[in-house]
Design brief:
Helices cover about 0% and strands about 50% of the residues. With about 70 residues, the protein is mainly beta.
């Protein structure tokens, strides 16, 4: 498993998709818990990139969320 840090965003593409906007990459969120799906929430996610899977919006790699921790925004 890996850690990914970024900000949760909702994009109005292909019916809407939740993403993790990291510094250089946008990840499509997969199996993210409802508590994580809050616009502009800064998080650290533990998860994995799902190889061979694409989202309908094709925004970037698909990130399967296993756990997350919200961060204070400075």
């Amino acid at each position: 498993m890996q850690e990914f840090e970024g900000v949760v965003q909702f994009l109005d593409l292909a019916g809407g998709i939740w993403v993790l906007q990291a510094e250089e990459v946008c990840y499509a969120l997969f199996r993210a818990p409802a508590a994580m799906l809050k616009e502009d929430l800064a998080v650290i996610v533990t998860g994995r990139i799902v190889e061979g899977m694409m989202s309908a919006a094709q925004v970037g790699p698909v990130l399967e969320v296993l756990t997350f921790v919200s961060q204070a925004v400075n």
